[in-house]
Amino acid sequence: MRWLTRRRAIGALAAAGLLAALVVPATSIGSGSAAFSPPTKIGKGEGSLNVIEWPAYTDPSFAKPFEKATGCTIHRKDAGSSNQMVALMRAGGGGGGGQYDLVSASGDASLRLIYGKDVVPINVNLLPGWKQFFPYFKSPAHNTVNGVHYGISLQWGPNTLIYNTKKVKPAPTSWSVVYGKKYAGKISIPNNPIQIADAALYLMKTKPALGIRDPYELTKGQFDAAVALLKRQKPLVKRYWNYAADQITDFKNGDVTVGSTWPYQTLTLQASKLSVKDLIPREGTTGWADTWMLAAKAPHPNCAYMWMKYVTMPKVEAQQAIVFGETPVTPLACPYMNKLQAGSCAQYHLNAPAAYLKSIHFWKVPIADCGWGGRKDCVDFTAWQQAWTQITG
Amino acid sequence: METRGARIGFGVSTALVVCFLWLPLVVIAVYAFNKSSIQSWPVSGWTLHWFRVAWQASDVRSALWLSVRVGLLASGIAIVLGSMAAFGVHRFRFFGRESVSLLLLLPLALPGIITGLALSSFFTFANQQASWLPGLPFSMWTIVIGHATFCVVVVYNNVLARLRRTSGSLVEASMDLGADGWQTFRYVTWPTISTALVGGALLAFALSFDEVIVTTFTAGAQTTLPIFIFNNINRGSQLPVINVVAFVVIALTVIPVWASVRLTHTSGLSRRS
Amino acid sequence: MAVDVAREAGSLRGARLRVSAAFWRRPWLKLAALVGPPVGIYTIVYVGSLAVLLASGFWAVNAFTSETVHTWNLGNFRTIFSTTDLTYWRIIGRTVAMAAAVTVTDAVLAFPLAYFMARLAMPRLRALLFVAVLLPLWSSYLVRIYSWRTILSTSGALNWVLTGLGLPAQHLSGTNWAMWLVFSYIWLPFMVLPVFAAIERIPDSYLEASGDLGARAGRTFRSVMLPLVLPGFVAGSIFTFALTLGDFITPALIGGGPGTAMIGSTVEANVGLNVPFAAALTAVPVAIMGLYLMAAKRLGAFEAL
Prior knowledge:
The complex is a heterotrimer.
Chain A: H1 2-22, E1 48-53, H2 60-70, E2 73-78, H3 82-90, E3 102-105, H4 107-115, E4 119-120, H5 135-138, E5 144-145, E6 148-149, E7 152-158, E8 160-164, H6 176-179, E9 187-190, H7 195-206, H8 220-233, E10 237-241, H9 244-253, E11 258-261, H10 263-271, E12 276-279, E13 285-295, H11 301-311, H12 314-324, E14 327-328, H13 334-340, H14 344-347, H15 353-359, E15 360-362, H16 381-392
Parallel strand pairs in A: 1-2, 1-3, 9-10, 9-11, 13-15
Antiparallel strand pairs in A: 3-13, 4-13, 5-6, 7-13, 7-14, 8-11, 8-12
Helix pairs in contact in A: 3-4, 7-8, 9-10, 12-13
Chain B: H1 4-32, H2 49-56, H3 58-91, H4 97-109, H5 112-128, H6 140-165, H7 169-176, H8 181-209, H9 213-218, H10 225-235, H11 239-265
Helix pairs in contact in B: 1-11, 2-11, 3-6, 3-8, 3-10, 4-6, 6-8, 7-8, 8-11
Chain C: H1 2-7, H2 12-25, H3 27-56, E1 60-61, E2 68-69, H4 75-80, H5 87-120, H6 123-138, H7 141-152, H8 157-164, H9 176-201, H10 204-212, H11 217-246, H12 249-253, H13 263-271, H14 275-298
Antiparallel strand pairs in C: 1-2
Helix pairs in contact in C: 2-3, 3-14, 5-9, 5-11, 6-9, 9-11, 10-11, 11-14, 13-14
């Protein structure tokens, strides 16, 4: 019988542990760690670099020379959504759990990581490419808080409308094609709550009466209208894709013919000789601006700095831009892009970024505090997630 | 005893079900030799190219090696804990005896996402909030712990089933003849349970080797073979290589599967007939 | 006996005998040594983990950083079991219905195979069939699911066969039908093995007696076979049911169409943004499986595993 008593003791112990967890006060949201001081020089490489990335963000075409030169072998963890990136960084106690060094966070993840203390400030002076960036991308609001840089801007680009040129005629010019019945059962939409912003953007242009100012800052009425639009869209959708490759497969298989995409999928499909095109429809589009951020518990910080230094050099910026189909943050990448692929600098609007920048509504975290009209009743991201489950479930 | 018609009926449905089980495996094998990297049907041409690519890929090798190590460690833990529990439950009548089976079965009977999320929360909790607990950062060991939870019950069930089939009088006879506990174990108990143990361990290894759901939650930056495959399915870039890897794994596992079938069922099946 | 033990105390064998004797005299010691460690470790690591998980279902998140806020509340459960918004009821209902459908399908498919293996096949063929059933378990689960995706896609092998036969092409990809097919496929071996074990245990004499007493094949099946095989079916169904309840890979790779969300995929989708909500949602399959296991235990399924 003694082991029974022992088991009871263990039970009591576990309960005590639980209790201890419950009395831990809620983590306060401060402006980041004031005590932390970033390094002043890059030390010796640790031989390894673990990254959480968007697919192809450490594409071997430009990562191989880096690995050879620095001896830092890259281990990749691809993410399908910003939520997944945050989850990976939070696993094992946050700050990358002592596992990951870098994360290529988009604007809807970067501030969550900063205020969650999962990433630490970096010393941009160690990264010579930074000085040549467009002014906006040196200290954008999504990675710089109170003048402290939590990472280095990387690339940016639009979410585009993709279509099979053989099946979709005439060529679409508006997002209405993914909300209309014409291609019912052949539509491909990302499985991501941030998709509500795409619907809101469409309504902002087509239903001005709703008074939408910003597709990420929606009052209850505006939000409900966007959700209703997506619910009407639901029966038309073939598949809500989780990973870029899911959508690529669906286009290759002929399961879908039109949808919302990243330029990466279009380029991959075109490379395998499928007749697809993508465009930014006349309503404008949402998009992303990404940042390489250094995990608070990075096990290989020197390799991480070496990578951030390498990948923000104009030549590498150009290489990555061509691989993924996005736009560099430095104007100096332009000639390299044209050398890799004639006319690509203009194609990705690197020569005229200001106007283009305005046409893209970058992903950000929806919060209750509306950025306009002093209102505090905007719908927050938790509600977005719930609504998204409601739409797709 | 069954009528001729019934025999033919059972034979035909068995053949159909086996075909159903094997259809995707055949498709995998075919696509491993597919010339095009697009998986459409019918296949346009044949090549051995992907085998060379897979052979040269160092990330495939390191993932495979990690999976083998995790599988061995998890089945090792399963052998120790599973057979201890099986012996205890078989020998003794005690309060809560029934619950031991239930407790060990839980990780296999509860969906993997729960086991994964629970362990992940536990490790996170231990690392973040409970400074009185030893911190356990995500590593190969957290993967091993995750796998061991559902491997133990496999060995436990196999050993317990075998113990129930063997007569207790053998052990008593051994003791009566003057053997000590160790000798009885070595010369009487071990020969009867060893094949069940190996069979259970092989099944445990197989479960661990192919596990992906629990692993996604309990792995850090480590890449087991299934995680490697999952990453690459998500990336879509190396699908033919994945087919090659899957094909080679199927071809190689014929040997241990055959061995486990012989070990678990040659001695045990003799009862009928 | 005690004198013998004392005399041989110096030797190794003596020491072993003393240990044996000590265990013999105090069986609870042996019991504790054998059962204590596995049960202790499981209680701390596994049950402890489940407790942490279920407790975190009562916590909330910060809407902006999506960090866990440790304040007790029932908000997550209110959302899941809301009476005005039936989203989660629908997801739970769909998942349970899918799990039940898959379980029934697997039972129907597994029985003839298991019966043939246990009672009709010669030893060599039986071993071969065993390998045929076990080998898919060893080959990558992910690759097999992906293989189904290519088979079921618009330009895949299924439609190639269908159009070749002059039948209309099917667009199964992304639908609940496709998920039902693939789930049934993936978990089939987990049903075959316990059903085989149960059939194998039935002595021939029972069936012969039934025949001798004048029962036809159907009656023998219903009144003798089925009650004896039932624990095997229940044991198999624990796996088919539980695995379907929690899987998120098949919904991601095979499902994904509108109205195909399952408990597993919904939990997975919430892990990134709202861990407490995901944890609260896992309480549903835990409760379902708890009830299921209690019922299974009554039906004697644990002996049949």
